[in-house]
Amino acid sequence: MDKLTIVKIGGNIIDDEQKLKDFIKSFSGISGKKILIHGGGKLATRLAETMGVEQQMVDGRRITDAETLKIVTMVYAGYINKNIVAALQANGCNAIGLSGADGNAIAAHKRTHASIDYGFVGDVDAVNVTLVHALLQQELAIVFAPITHDNNGLLLNTNADTIAQEIAKGMSGTYDVSLIYSFEKAGVLLDANDDSTVINEINPAYYSELKTTGKIFAGMLPKLDNAFAAINSGVKKVIIGKAEQLPLLTEGKAGTTIIA
Amino acid sequence: MDKLTIVKIGGNIIDDEQKLKDFIKSFSGISGKKILIHGGGKLATRLAETMGVEQQMVDGRRITDAETLKIVTMVYAGYINKNIVAALQANGCNAIGLSGADGNAIAAHKRTHASIDYGFVGDVDAVNVTLVHALLQQELAIVFAPITHDNNGLLLNTNADTIAQEIAKGMSGTYDVSLIYSFEKAGVLLDANDDSTVINEINPAYYSELKTTGKIFAGMLPKLDNAFAAINSGVKKVIIGKAEQLPLLTEGKAGTTIIA
Q1: What HAMAP family does its record include (chains A, B) (predicted)?
Q2: Are B94 and A103 inside 8 Å of each other by CB?
Q3: pLDDT tens for each residue of A220-248
């Protein structure tokens, strides 16, 4: 099977102009077929402030009301997505930027929850493997914004880590997929503030232990859940690490490797 | 050659929720390969007001400074483009929304002018016929936002009428292209306020006469220049007419037909 590298880039990198520039150069240098999934960063929050739209957060998650959906659609699928694509083009990487509505790439449904109304938040139902494959065959790198749709005309704000996992799973029947979660830290750390405490490998038993002993900081848990969901569904390699080390991450020479 | 219908939709239609809804339904019903190019409407202006970004206009054209470029990228390539795509999907039309940066679809250069600095405004250099053809072959309807790029990482605000003309010209070597400029009026009118004065056909001699006698209102001239540029470069049919009459326009039974 052909190799496919899927990279998720975190919001803190997007907020840092120089780091983003360096990352885009590194991503352009990855040989073979590739997909980039980006989060949102602080731009949406700043725009909401400028526009006087109040942001509600529950358990660290943004509640996406109608005005917030409008803002994230503009910022994620418009500003961030198109600027990343233009920068990739400038680096000689022919990229195409998509939301989940484009080509029905990622279908989702509005989340329902017993007690919390998350608003216009989507949980992924299906990745359009045929479309993604066809675009990759055109030698295009695909850049996904974390916006999906419900096939009834509704756009939905969707977690970028989850999108990365779902695309990696979906494509693993057709490609030998490596999934890289890149962000501001060197990997999964025993001490969240010390990059030298990166854990090289995590298997399910060790993950249970780390959770039980409370050694992993809370924000890392959904990322690790996504990482294990991917490795348990046919994705060949899952690595979590520092965006600046992307070339090393793609070679498995840095970051935390997730073991099935 | 295969038929390809290219429709430009004007800003006044985008600003009217019901008209846009009806238009999207009509566009979804067009058989065969199709491309939609949308303008911006008043959303960008309203967002600029909310954000306190002052809009400069010269000769009816927006001067695109850095903040305005950010706004139009968000509104055109993000909010409008993705909502149109999602609405097309809801109508059973598998659409993909692109800016000119995506897949290097439309390369442009920053406009230079002896006396006016238009800012980040792009004049089109090339349409990527291979990419557009490949996407159409995937049975995708393509939805273009009026944003291009310069291959050096710069996004550029570009006139949607011109984009429609350039794409129509570019694709006319591969397809039997019909180009439809749809907007709020019934066609080219002898009296701008009276839809019953629509001119059925305009050839170059009549166009000269209309210009000389000052019978056509100023805003229509660039649209007609684009229309003639298209018909003189291999585009089979060029029609200007009312968005609500799209099915009739595609059959050549309404609007103004441009004759080479």
Answers
A1: ArgB
A2: yes
A3: 999 999 999 999 999 999 999 999 999 99
- Residue B189: strand, helix, or coil: strand
* CATH superfamily of the domain spanning A3-183+240-251: Acetylglutamate kinase-like (3.40.1160.10)
Beta bridge partners of A123: A109
Residue of A253, A257, A249 lying closest to A23 (CA atoms): A249
8 Å CB contact of B102 and A97: yes
- Whether B155 contacts chain A with CB within 8 A: yes
Residue A142 has pLDDT above 70, yes or no: yes
DSSP label at residue B236: S
Q: For residue B160, which of B87, B239, B72, B258 has the smallest C-alpha distance?
A: B72
Cα(B220)–Cα(A140) distance, rounded to whole angstroms?
38
CA of A83 to nearest chain B CA: how many angstroms apart?
Answer: 7
**ipTM of the predicted structure?**
0.96
In this predicted structure, the answer to whether residue A61 has a pLDDT above a threshold of 70 is: no
What are A148's two structure tokens? 């999906």
CATH number listed for the domain at residues B3-203+215-258: 3.40.1160.10
